[in-house]
Amino acid sequence: MHVQNPELQLQQQVEALIFASEEAVSVQTIRQVTGSALDSAMLHALVERLNREYEASGRTFRIHRLAGGYRFLTCPEYGEMLKKLLAPKIQRRLSRSILEVLAVIAYNQPVTRSEILQIRGVSPDYALERLLFRGFIEIRGRMDSPGKPLQYGTTKEFLDLFHLSSLRDLPKLREIREIRQEEDEQHHHS
Question: What pTM was estimated for this model as a whole?
Answer without folding.
Answer: 0.47
